[in-house]
């Protein structure tokens, strides 16, 4: 009998430590304290942020409370950043944008619900998690075309072009950009002039902390162009969140100078029986190694920091980074066989199939468009999908 068949008959071995860890995680644990600090220096005045404490999924029920932190990094204007800041949360994480040409916004939102942290991001702002033991985890993905091979492939597969600026003599300069439009990012809110190549569909990651807690450092690219994830975490360990945010900004300024807006939020998720997160002892580092490798992550995602901490410290619950809605939603959709009613995969409302977009229903808006290969979408959610993919010309569009 083949080994694969044997393994199917016998349940996999689970170490005792893992079983004990599961039992401990299933115990009712009191919600942690959330303490935060904020600091910023303006160069262009296009960075905005949002801090919303004690939000309630069920109004009047404190047991359903959660906390929200967000950063909105505007480019070529402030309109999209302000609009997203004012509407993102109030519309239950449904972002509204309107047709304002090049006005754009690279942003992300962090939702803290007890020990669970959910991060949704577009652009090149970043959120890192620093936990006990000095392990730094990256909770976002940089959508810079220069560093993100998958996004370059997605843009070119969609019909866009990726290349650098050409100067006199045919020399190429600067980072890789998407054409038309010349944007060096592959995802943002706004950028209607670029069309369907630049999408506002976020990378989403959800993790659950152990009851030891952890620290989030949420910052715009003005910080991350100057500091690696590890450098930012080490610069403020053992300090209260308010002071920590100021030190991260100060360290970025010392390293690179004020070349861009720099905004930093430091959020500590602290066990209820602790006044402050315990400091993590700094590991000794070889001087030569530090000189050779200390700054290799200044402008790119360090793959080692993307690995989550050891089991028992951080548990990954969910991650989805695809820019294709069909892949995110899947191809299966429920149907009421008695009435012939379909349920929208997004809003979960039952509707007749004639009122929405069904599987393989054919191209929309353009003969070059590929047939929809996702689940049933109602008319309203179909319009949101088209707006996200840059397939609408309305002057005021609602997108998911």
TrEMBL record:
Listed GO MF terms: protein serine/threonine phosphatase activity
Pfam families found in the cross-reference section: PP2C (PF00481)
Domain PPM-type phosphatase: residue ranges: 28-269
Gene3D superfamilies: PPM-type phosphatase domain
Protein name: PPM-type phosphatase domain-containing protein
Organism taxonomic ancestry: Eukaryota, Viridiplantae, Streptophyta, Embryophyta, Tracheophyta
Protein source organism: Hibiscus syriacus (Rose of Sharon)
InterPro entries: PP2C (IPR015655), PPM-type-like_dom_sf (IPR036457), PPM-type_phosphatase-like_dom (IPR001932)
């Amino acid at each position: 009998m083949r080994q694969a068949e044997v393994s199917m008959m016998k349940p996999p071995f689970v170490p005792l430590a893992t079983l004990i860890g599961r039992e401990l995680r299933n115990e009712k644990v009191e919600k942690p304290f959330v303490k935060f600090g904020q600091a910023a220096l303006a160069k262009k005045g296009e960075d905005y942020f949002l801090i919303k404490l004690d939000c309630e999924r069920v109004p009047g029920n404190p047991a359903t409370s959660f906390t929200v932190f967000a950063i909105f990094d505007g480019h070529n204007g402030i309109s999209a950043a302000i609009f997203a800041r004012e509407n993102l949360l109030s519309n239950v994480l449904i972002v509204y944008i309107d047709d304002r040409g090049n006005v754009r916004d690279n942003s992300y939102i962090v939702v803290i619900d007890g020990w669970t942290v959910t991060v949704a991001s577009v652009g090149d702002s970043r959120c890192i998690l620093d936990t006990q033991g000095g392990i730094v985890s990256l909770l976002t993905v940089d959508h810079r075309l220069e560093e993100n091979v998958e996004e370059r492939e997605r843009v070119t597969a969609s019909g866009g072009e990726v290349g650098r600026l050409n100067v006199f003599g045919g020399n190429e300069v600067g980072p890789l950009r998407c054409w038309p439009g010349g944007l060096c990012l592959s995802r943002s809110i706004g950028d209607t002039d670029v069309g369907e190549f630049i999408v506002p569909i976020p990378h989403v990651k959800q993790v659950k902390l152990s009851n030891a807690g952890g620290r989030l450092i949420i910052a715009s690219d003005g910080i991350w162009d100057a500091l690696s994830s590890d450098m930012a975490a080490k610069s403020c360990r053992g300090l209260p969140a308010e002071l920590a945010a100021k030190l991260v900004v100060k360290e970025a300024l010392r390293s690179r100078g004020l070349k861009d807006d720099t905004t930093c939020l430091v959020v500590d998720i602290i066990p209820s029986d602790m006044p402050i997160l315990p400091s993590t002892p700094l590991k000794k580092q070889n001087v030569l190694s530090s000189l050779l490798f200390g700054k290799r992550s200044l402008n790119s995602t360090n793959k080692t920091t993307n690995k989550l901490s050891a089991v028992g410290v951080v548990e990954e619950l969910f991650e989805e980074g695809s820019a294709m809605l069909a892949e995110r939603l899947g191809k299966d959709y429920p149907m009421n066989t008695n009435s012939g009613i379909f349920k929208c995969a997004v809003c979960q409302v039952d509707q007749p199939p004639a009122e929405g977009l069904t599987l393989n229903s054919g191209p929309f808006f353009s003969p070059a468009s590929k047939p929809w290969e996702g689940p049933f979408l109602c008319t309203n959610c179909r319009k949101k999908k088209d707006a996200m993919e840059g397939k609408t010309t309305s002057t005021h569009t609602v997108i998911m």
